[in-house]
Structure to design on (988 residues):
């Protein structure tokens, strides 16, 4: 199955990652990366059942060996000359709001490990495939997209464990955008500034009206739009928030 | 011709403004504002000839009386209950790079007058029409889009006359996004970071390859995309630059 | 009285400007600029009575003729080869929080006129004197300092008339810092993020404790510190806020 | 030796850290932390010989056990109720400019480990001592100061390993400033934007004139100034660069 362009999504749960995977699966075979098969199994089945193609690979993005095994599995499935049209990094260390002196070292480093080191390993693993996509003259410029948050640009009190990872990831994305833009790879960073409407947030913001939460499908559309921008008009960063959000 | 949604574009020359007008004309009647009929006449004819509808109104956006006359003309043409789906502010004071002590007062104030005061008057004139669009439940959230530049976020040596106007316009757009987002109007600011490929820049960046300049049609697509974002996923700001741009 | 270095302060009322003038008057003769003699008269008397030297000049910083007359008066007083050690722009258009559609054109343009055009005229008038200070090898690098606010970096809803002027002034200061740093003039911008403790704010923040407001004398110290930084260690921007401020 | 206020400096080599230690040693006993005794031994001797007091402790700031041992050693030396007037984090992971795909995992994580995790561990270790300083009513508000760089606010191509750590550290400092300012601890971040004049950079920028490099003693003065700001006028962030620096 050589010379086929694929999309790779890291961090697929019941929210943004799944919506993004569904969106890109309409055009590309998708590879779903998550630590736990529970996170991708039903999604892969759904995509495969509806005419798309998806494979899930249990991967810890913060572990270089695990990431290398994922690349090996991708090449085994799609051929050693497999190229990527898109790679989306949607993984995140655990959100925590806690007085600084009570933050356990493990919690602090876990955010850095997933967001920063994970972002690094994912980028080193997928950029060669994205550059191969450039070489194979993909219809749209191959895209590497990172999911950011309010905490990517603002570091609130009691939030340092989350924000340090997110600021580091944003720095990574900016450096990569500058280095790989001229190579034809489109690197973007989306600042998700609000609550995303997913099963886990069902009861949140109940009194704020029907549009108080970001739509995960909407984010998927936004990522797809970034992906389709031509080489002349690359966006590195955009923010996304509900109309009613205070900011 | 009541309950018709229109799009209003200020600053239509041979470049971005014209491309944006063409793009929005595929869906809405467009109103073209420019000081000089030369700037909009052939464009209006082209749009009208190709099945769209366009009218041009000679307007100095930095003069409140002139802006009021434009609103009167719009209401005369489209009815007093006219609503706007989009208003795009693409006007700009003259770009100037000159040692600060040699910048004439007129040149400095002209940038402020067009960008900041012009942006203010244009917003006060069009926001009531955009709010009317919200009331009339337009398909897409009514959009107020401002064209920014590299100089909107970076104030280089010898560039203060241009950057002061652009920073002020960005401040205006951020304040309006926060105030009118909850009202249903989508306010955005696009940072155009590079040279746009228009007749005036034909000879520029010749050695930098075919994609070294931003596509004006691409910018129009980007503005259209912003316009179609749903209430749950508003972008205030995005940057746009050629893949090969150094930044 | 030639080859004497002076300090010039624009915007001296009962608050920051007066404190800054007092501080710099300990070292330099000071020139106090304000539209109304009421704003500088008693301050000038106080400084002169306590062994310093101060003159007040009624000046509208947003009017180029008025600014030119001030420069003429300075040269008449201190000699045509007068040099400046410091020029501090502390003027500001009126603060206003009001729904955007109710902001009068005059109020909007007044902020731009004072902050942006005033900053421009003040800079064009004082930079030649500051450059003369470089030539005369002043002990400390001649300093041009601008007073900013929270609204210089954040444009809140209903605050656009104030923030547009402040963002423009910040852009001016950044451009000047880049152009005139290499010439030996130190250009700085201070973000005053909080309420300043002055007569007008006496009753404010009563329940927030004794240190909830910025000290005007403290700001004066901060400006003096900026002034004394050597050529190797120039600060363009710093923020200043009470320890208890939420941000 | 109870109720004595100390200063703690992490990252003392031949440059900024040493200059900062000398400056603060004029007022406080100083604790010098570095991995290698070579980095602090002669400095400690110099300070002790010139009438100050300094102790060096071999510490790996990225290792929680090592940091805990340092705190134990401090308490043994200065008493269990020791309080800190200042804690300065000047450590940094290795600077590296290299094509992203050639950056070894170790190099990438080392920057995160020293800057981000090290900053975290140093802050958790010193904040209790700084809060004790507040309780003991130190003359100046106890200060926690972080050394940043150009790469703290700008992430250039091929620089992601350095910038990710530096952005994370800046996020940490902002969060701590917001949380601990109201507690009376002054948290600051200095953006050092240029080459520092230290033995290692002796041959650099030779043609750029005598003032083309930042003075390490100047930085020490700047940190001391931050330390002396009163509770009403805290600076979180300032930038520092030579007058001639291009930016």
């Amino acid at each position: 199955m050589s010379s086929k362009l694929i999309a790779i999504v890291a961090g697929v749960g019941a929210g943004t990652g799944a919506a993004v995977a569904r969106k890109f699966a309409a055009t590309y075979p998708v590879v779903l990366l998550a630590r736990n098969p529970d996170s991708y199994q039903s999604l892969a089945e759904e995509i495969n059942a509806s005419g798309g193609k998806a494979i899930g690979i249990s991967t810890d993005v913060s572990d270089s060996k695990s990431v290398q095994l994922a690349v090996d599995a991708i090449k085994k499935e799609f051929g050693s000359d497999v190229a990527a049209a898109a790679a989306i990094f949607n993984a995140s260390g655990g959100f925590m709001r806690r007085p600084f002196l009570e933050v356990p070292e493990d919690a602090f480093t876990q955010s850095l490990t997933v967001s920063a080191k994970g972002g690094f390993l994912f980028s080193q693993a997928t950029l060669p495939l994205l550059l191969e996509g450039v070489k194979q003259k993909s219809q749209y410029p191959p895209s590497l997209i990172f999911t950011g948050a309010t905490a990517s640009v603002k570091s609130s009190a009691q939030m340092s464990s989350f924000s340090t990872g997110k600021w580091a990831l944003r720095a990574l994305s900016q450096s990569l955008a500058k280095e790989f833009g001229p190579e034809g790879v489109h690197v973007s960073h989306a600042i998700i500034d609000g609550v995303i409407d997913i099963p886990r947030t069902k009861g949140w913001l109940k009194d704020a009206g029907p549009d108080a939460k970001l739509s995960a499908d909407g984010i998927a559309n936004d990522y797809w739009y970034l992906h389709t921008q031509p080489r002349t008009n690359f966006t590195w960063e955009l923010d996304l928030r509900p109309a009613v959000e205070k900011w």
Residues 5-240 of chain B form a domain with the Rossmann fold fold (CATH 3.40.50.720).
